[in-house]
Every structure is written in structure tokens, then in C-alpha cells.
Automatic annotation (TrEMBL):
Residues 37-56 bind DNA. InterPro entries: BetI_C, Homeodomain-like_sf, HTH-type_TetR-like_transc_reg, HTH_TetR, Tet_transcr_reg_TetR-rel_C_sf. Residues 14-74 form the HTH tetR-type domain. This is TetR/AcrR family transcriptional regulator. It comes from Streptomyces hokutonensis.
């Protein structure tokens, strides 16, 4: 196989993997992780289950790829996050309900013992809380106007963001996710 042929094959393999990850996102959003099957994902992309296993040897490997892909969409270096960017992220999330539904379904399922995404979400939340404490410290210093430290406020900030997503997914006509998040920022002292 020539170098050009090899590069072409790698590019096609990467495209196929990306197609499978997108299909897995859809299936997980519809059925949850436990209800999603490799067969359903394979069918969506026109493969047999064995064909899918060529790209992702286990369901857990596919789940990790889905989570990593989702994180890439929101990737901003920690040093560049600001309060106003968080509000923009909430607005952006309101435009992509399927992705938020998938993330929320996986997050909800991951609290059970033995779930393959449990370690991922545990580590992710530790990183996110630390990042949010940094954002709050950069904005307010060692104490917010409400008297709390950035470290004490960071879990509340993350909880509001995730909790609003669940409420919005359940009743998007009644929950203005971006507006409610801006209201929370006002409580922090951001106007």
C-alpha cells in the first residue's frame, strides 16, 4: 500500500468513526446508555454489529468516544473562561437539545455503581469545579459579593447549569434556561 493509499484509508476510517459516534449520540439520546445497543448504532450507520466492533471493540469504548467528542464541542482553555462566556455557553446549549439530552441521560445513569461513565463524570466534575472556582476568583477575587469563596460557590454554579438543563429538557416552553442562568449570575453579584 502506498503512502497516499494509507493516508486515504486512515481518513476514511476517521470519517467512519465520527459517523458512528454521531449515531451513538442519537441512539443514547433516544434510549439512554443502558437502552442503547451496538446493534442499533450499527444499523444507523449501515454496518453489522461485527463491522462496528472493528471501529469500537466494546460498548464502553464507544461511550468514551461519545463523551470525548461532546467535550470537544465545549472546549475552551480554562484560562479563557469568563462569567459572560458561561452565559453564552448556556445560550448555545439551548440550541442543541439532542446533545444536552445525551449528556444528561449519561450523567443520570452514571451515578449507579459500575456504570462505565462513572469515573469519567467524577473526574470531569472535579475539573469543572476547579475551573469554575478559577473563573469566579478572576471575576470577584477571594470573596464574592455574597461573602462565599469561589471554592464554595463553584459547586453551586455547576449545579445551577446542570439543573437548568434537566428542567429545560423536561419543559422547554416553561423554562428559559439562558434567562434563568442570567438571573443566577445576578444573585452572585454579576449584573
Amino acid at each position: 500500500m502506498s503512502y497516499g493509499d494509507e493516508m486515504n484509508a486512515r481518513a476514511k476510517s476517521a470519517e467512519r468513526r465520527a459517523e458512528i459516534v454521531r449515531a451513538a449520540l442519537e441512539v443514547i439520546a433516544e434510549r439512554g446508555y443502558r437502552g442503547a445497543s451496538l446493534a442499533a448504532v450499527a444499523e444507523r450507520v449501515g454496518l453489522t454489529q461485527q463491522g462496528l466492533l472493528h471501529y469500537f471493540p466494546t460498548k464502553d469504548a464507544l461511550l468514551v468516544a461519545v463523551l470525548e467528542e461532546r467535550d470537544q464541542w465545549d472546549a475552551v482553555p480554562d484560562s479563557q473562561w469568563r462569567i459572560d462566556l458561561l452565559a453564552s455557553l448556556v445560550e448555545y446549549n439551548a440550541m442543541r437539545p439532542a446533545i444536552i439530552q445525551t449528556f444528561s441521560a449519561l450523567l443520570g445513569e452514571s451515578v449507579t455503581e459500575g456504570h462505565p461513565a462513572r469515573d469519567y463524570f467524577t473526574a470531569r466534575y472535579a475539573r469543572v469545579r476547579a475551573s469554575m472556582a478559577g473563573v469566579l476568583r478572576a471575576e470577584y477575587g477571594d470573596r464574592l459579593p455574597n461573602g462565599l469563596t469561589p471554592e464554595r460557590t463553584a459547586p453551586l454554579l455547576v449545579a445551577v447549569m446542570d439543573g437548568l438543563q434537566y428542567q429545560w429538557l423536561l419543559d422547554p416552553e416553561s423554562v428559559d434556561m439562558p434567562g434563568a442562568f442570567r438571573d443566577f449570575l445576578a444573585l452572585l453579584g454579576e449584573t
